[in-house]
Write a structure and sequence with these properties.
The protein has 289 residues and is mostly beta strands. It is 9% helix and 44% strand.
């Protein structure tokens, strides 16, 4: 039987290089919520003042030496913040990268804004978005989702604190003052809660005059014009009997504002809730009454 013994001889060698693939952007979406992989859940170009804005960038690969960048601008073209992303390993699959931005103190003024997306320092594209001021109904919805409360056993006080709000407390021997502070000074709502010393408070007949004094200074400071006043005795949703005095004003821009002063007695003390609220936030202002 014949045998075949092929012989091979190296004729030539050749060198070659495996190049890393080029990183490319597949898509960009703006959103107010992302999942655990940074993919957009709620895509939108309109946000509320307290939203976190996400610029979600999907790329084919993420290779060492490449970088992504987002630049956020206000409606005057001023750069607010710049954020960058790079990688410490080669990723040979499509991934999402999300750049987030939130206003200072958790609040961004209503208006038109822009975000620029860069790949390797080259501008990829520009995306416009808008901050829409919430209406009063929207402002009052879902603002107590975290269960934040203020409590003080000494004065028998317990009330809810809106999400992202803080407070200051002055407990002066036998009286109390709690000032609720909004996440932004631009939010047109304010709450002040006070408790008098034991037995040291005004009679029912003196309350209207005291309410006048509290409100007159505020009107002068803000250059408001008094439009209407009213007062009544009511019972709250929590069964508390109280007197409230409502003052309606117009500001120089013809926006309507209200101040609400509510008084009630308990344990030989006078409790006072003072609220300032613009008309489009009335629903939120009524949450404490």
């Amino acid at each position: 039987r014949p045998e075949f013994r092929p012989e091979f001889a190296l004729i030539k060698t050749a060198n070659f290089i495996v190049k890393k693939p080029e990183v490319k952007i597949i898509e960009v979406s703006l959103a107010n919520q992302v999942d655990e992989d940074f993919a957009p859940i709620n895509r939108t170009q309109q946000f509320s003042p307290t939203d976190t804005m996400y610029a979600c960038v999907r790329i084919n690969y993420f290779i060492l030496g490449n970088n992504l960048k987002a630049k956020w601008y206000d409606n005057n073209g001023n750069l607010m913040v710049e954020t960058a992303a790079d990688t410490d390993e080669d990723l040979y699959e499509p991934i999402w990268a999300a750049f987030s931005f939130k206003g200072e103190d958790g609040y961004l003024l209503p208006g038109a804004y822009t975000v620029e997306i860069y790949l390797n320092d080259g501008l990829y594209n520009t995306y416009d978005f808008e901050i829409i001021e919430e209406s009063g109904a929207e402002a009052g919805e879902d603002i107590f989702t975290r269960g934040n409360t203020y409590s003080n056993d000494k004065y028998g006080v317990l009330f809810a604190v809106p999400d992202d709000w803080t407070y200051t407390e002055i407990d002066d021997a036998d009286s109390l003052e709690v000032n609720l502070i909004a996440p932004s000074g631009d939010l047109p709502v304010a709450f002040l809660f006070m408790v008098s010393s034991t037995g040291d408070y005004l009679s029912k007949e003196q309350l209207p005059e005291f309410a006048d004094e509290m409100n007159s200074g505020i009107a002068i400071d803000n250059n408001w014009e008094l439009v209407d006043t009213e007062g009544e005795e009511s019972v709250s949703n929590h069964g508390i009997q109280y007197h409230d005095f409502v003052y309606i004003y117009n500001d120089p821009d013809n926006n309507e504002w209200a101040t609400i002063t509510a008084f009630f007695e308990n344990n030989n003390r006078l409790y006072v809730l003072f609220t300032i609220v613009r008309s489009d936030y009335y629903d939120m202002g009524q949450l404490y009454i």
